[in-house]
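Entry:
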Amino acid sequence: MKYLLGIDLGTSGTKTVLFTEDGLALNSATEEYELYQPHNGWAEQEPDDWWKACISSVKRVLAESRINAADIAGIGFSGQMHGLVMLDENGESLRRSIIWCDGRTAGECADIMNRVGAKRLVELTGNQALTSFTAGNILWVRNNEPEVYKRCRHILLPKDYLRYKLTGKPGMEASDASGMNILDIEERIWSEEILKKLEIDPELLPDVYESGMLAGHITAEAAKLTGLKEGTPVVYGSGDNAAAAIGTGVVEKGKAFITIGTSGVLFAHSDSVAVDTGGRVNTFCAAAQDSWAVFGCTLAAGMSLQWLRNNFFLPEMKVAEGLGKDPYTIMTEQAERVPIGANKLLFLPYLMGERSPILDPDARAVFFGLSAIHNKYDMLRSVMEGVVYAQRQCLDILRDMGIEFKELYATGGGGTSPLWRQMIADIFDLPVVTIQNREGPALGAAILAGVGTGLYPSIPDACRRIIKQNSPQDPIAANSAKYAPYYDLYCDLYPGMKNGFKTLSKL
């Protein structure tokens, strides 16, 4: 039997999963690492921490599975997008990676819009200049750390760094590269026009390929460190959302998924380039060739729940540890006891600023309506509802663009929560479907490995063979009616606070 390995480099940790050719997950291992926030609104990680986590998780999976490493037909990647990895002439990391939820580059983004022109930037890249994107991070390093910039010889994205360490060959693929603000997404190549206007040397960037193409093979050194067999084929892989789309079968028109991980994403497949000229949602290349994706990203979705857990639910965490349960399971059981609307308490999930649909790095999280009657369980329910309201705003924009779908696939940590799924179904007024295989991005990465090594003829063919869905979770009409006025109020809150957020950022 042949196997496939999917490596998913996330924000909280790197997860490696071993699959059979039929997509059955045999074993997995996750290694976590630090998120550094040296200043308010900043977010960085150490590329070497990713590499150590990759080595450790691969070794654990191989040891626990007790398979012959020679039977692994291919390796694919999924990874957090946008993170800036700068390497010197010897391939060593020059600084911590500025990652996707960092908001320091408002000035650089304004500079990009001025140099390229807002309209032209959207025409070429499908997106406005956002603080999440890599181009602003490149300019920030050039402006603030010129000695680091001068020493840079290679610019990569997070998962591409892991692939480079395994194969010795730098490279990128279209789905991840389209999140850098410098890729011509229709042609799927670097935009010479943008690079020239931003004065970024194209020699710093590797060539761009398609996600399922062969990228290289495991080197002798990487084999020694990981236990993989030297010469094992490695494909390019894709950005995490593009991989999650494959892992849920969202690879054809009329399909969409929602994921609540650290961030929250509403992602719809498109057979053509569709762009929101206001930049409220993003358009990227999909992992499948000649296809694209339109999606909205809430920066602090699961992160908001994690923040609440770490600061208010320490007793529940201890109880969960003693019972061998996930603390989020205990928390959501408590949230179910709180009525819809959280006793008139709303939460705006702007812990890291916000991307979709308000594009405001200065925005900050808000509990609106907090009074003496409220307790931490009301706050818990309001956080969960607020995350879904934020993504519902993205749904409204997709509908305005003419992008329609009749059901929604759920993935990520939030997708495992029946309560959160029901909230989504009720607030979106759509059936929510889960996939029997819960590995999502890692499965997508493995499918790409199978396509790149010839096990499957194409991505859609592989998905039809592998992806199996559970029965849908339907919306409850009475619940939808109760959520509606709270959602309307939620949409009214940010415009009244926008100027206040900007003033606060300058204090």
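The chain has a mean pLDDT of 95.
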